[in-house]
Amino acid sequence: MRFMILRKADAQTEAGEMPSEQLIADMTAYNAELVKAGVMLAGEGLHPSSRGARVKFSKGKPNVIDGPFAGARELVAGFTMIEVGSYEEALEWVRRWPVTDGNGEVELELRRVFEADDFGEAFTPELREEEERMRSAIQQAGKPLGGTRG
């Protein structure tokens, strides 16, 4: 099972404050544990919403809204993608998140990622084959789905 750990934004991440040397070291150690356990698939930190945009569709037409966005707690500052055997195992990894992040006041969200079988008959053999071709092309191009930062 794949899970995404979402690191919620806060005032510091939205201000674009860079992590301390200690936090970088702690996140590197945490990510190294994930890699050593063979469960880490990807992970990245995100720039603040002021450097991003939202695209809202209405009647099929896109409307681009430049950041920043209000409500930092609803925004995402980074993510880690893991693959583990159960929800409980995923939760155990979340509980081990470095306490230095957010000065001990960080909010994380754990979400399971859909797998092909979750879509039932709507995900036809032809669509599955196309999905596999795309994933293979991504791997052959040497473009990972993410890096090793949380």
Characterization of the model:
The chain is an alpha+beta fold. The chain has a single domain, classed as Dimeric alpha+beta barrel (Alpha-Beta Plaits), CATH 3.30.70. It is built from four helices and six strands. The longest helix has 16 residues, at 21-36. The two termini are 19 Å apart. The relative contact order is 0.27. Mean pLDDT is 92; it is low at 146-150.
Quick overview of this protein structure:
It is built from 4 helices and 6 strands, in the order E-H-H-E-E-E-E-H-E-H. It has 150 residues and is of the alpha+beta class.
Throw out a few tags for this protein.
disordered C terminus; 4 helices; four-stranded antiparallel sheet; two-stranded antiparallel sheet; 30% helix; 150 residues; alpha+beta; Alpha-Beta Plaits
By CATH, the topology is Alpha-Beta Plaits
Instruction: Please give the domain count.
Output: 1
Rough shape?
Answer: globular
Number of helices: 4
Mean of residue pLDDT?
92
> How far apart lie the N and C ends?
19 Å
CATH architecture assignment name = 2-Layer Sandwich
Which strand order does the major sheet show? 2-5-1-6
Please estimate the helix content: 25-40%
Say how many strands there are.
Answer: 6
The largest β sheet comes out as: 4 strands, antiparallel
Overall structural class, as computed from helix and strand content, comes to alpha+beta
By CATH reckoning, the class would read Alpha Beta
